Amino acid sequence: MKSILCLLIAAALGAALQSSGVPHGLLLGSILATSLIVSQTGFAPTTPYGLGYIQVTLGIATGLMFEAWDSATAATMLPSLGVLLLCLMAQIALAGWWLTRGAGWNRTDALLAVYPGALAAVFDLLESHQASSKVIIVHLMRLLLITVLVSLCIPGQVSDAVVDSAPLSTGMALTALSVIFLSVLLGRLLLVVGVPAPFMLTAIIITAVFVKAGWLHGFHMPDWSLNLAALILGARIGSRFQGIGLGELARHGRTALMSVGLMLVVAAAFAGVAGRWLGSDSLTLWLAYMPGAIETIAIVAFGGGLNVVFILTHHLSRMVLLHFAPALVVQVRRGREGV
């Protein structure tokens, strides 16, 4: 009951911020409400299946946006994807170097803090490695900075228009359920090899395949499912503030601001160079090279009329690379230990 009450309070504050025009107010409001409850009472709400629900829901919503993707489009993106790889290495190296040298963090916390993956993947890494609470502060700062920056840099409001569609048919409902089933099934297989947040990755890829095959034509994720995902995600983020004092938050908040700022500056520098080299829009490239926050960037880019397919293809490539990299490291270490 306590967890349900906490979620209701978070939903009320988030809805209030959303209705007042705050960008992504439901997510930010649930983070704020849960962190206040945790810091004042010491109680953190539990959402046993929340992380899986977040991954599948956001994965399907993202995969549906790849309807216009084709092989010709992919070929034109290859040079930019190469720049993205260099940008990722520069972002991780520079921010990680500053955290270890400038802030005195240990290597494990520094690497987890600069991991530019989806928040769901970050949660998996945090829970499996038992990283210190200061790591989540860096990712919170990353989410907040990216949300504010992309909202300010892209003019206009995100469209909240509801797409008119026919009632969900039995066939379409079964198709959607099959996407969910396959995402969970294949995701559990990826868990065996140590891939973090596998359900989001499988949901994106499977949904994209179904969309290109025409099996999900006209299907749209209901608003309530995305709002619930934002609420649960905010509650899980806010619950990580348990045991964090205001002094620690202020101290690590400054460190987080510096490290995230470095990553965003690196992304902007690479976007500027790649924009001149490839003849592309630098703002679009900057969003494509952002260190994470795919949900925020996708929504804002779509509402701003930007090339969503181009941006999300880069983020999907980044997620594939970063989601499988930890699994490969684990397998290499196991192989060395077995020798």
What does this protein look like?
This is AbrB family transcriptional regulator. The protein has 339 residues and is mainly α. It has one domain (2-338): Up-down Bundle (Na+/H+ antiporter like fold). Helices cover 75% and strands 0% of the residues. The chain contains 14 helices and no strands. The protein has helices spanning 2-19, 25-41, 50-63, 71-102, 107-113, 119-129, 134-153, 170-192, 198-212, 223-239, 246-278, 282-288, 294-303, 308-338. It starts with a helix and ends with a helix. Mean pLDDT is 81; it is low at 156-164.
Features:
339 residues, mainly alpha, Na+/H+ antiporter like fold, 14 helices, globular
Summary of the model, kept short:
By secondary structure, the protein is an all-alpha fold.
Strands, helices and their partners?
Elements: H1 2-19, H2 25-41, H3 50-63, H4 71-102, H5 107-113, H6 119-129, H7 134-153, H8 170-192, H9 198-212, H10 223-239, H11 246-278, H12 282-288, H13 294-303, H14 308-338
Helix pairs in contact: 1-2, 1-10, 2-10, 3-9, 3-10, 4-5, 4-11, 4-14, 5-7, 7-11, 7-13, 8-9, 11-12, 12-14, 13-14
Gyration radius, in Å: 20 Å
- Count of extended strands: 0
What is the CATH architecture term?
A: Up-down Bundle
Biggest β-sheet description: none
CATH class: Mainly Alpha
Count of helical stretches: 14
CATH topology: Na+/H+ antiporter like fold
* Poorly predicted spans: 156-164
- The amount of beta strand, in percent, is under 5%
User: Structural class, from secondary structure content?
Assistant: mainly alpha
Shape: globular
Mean pLDDT across all residues, rounded? 81
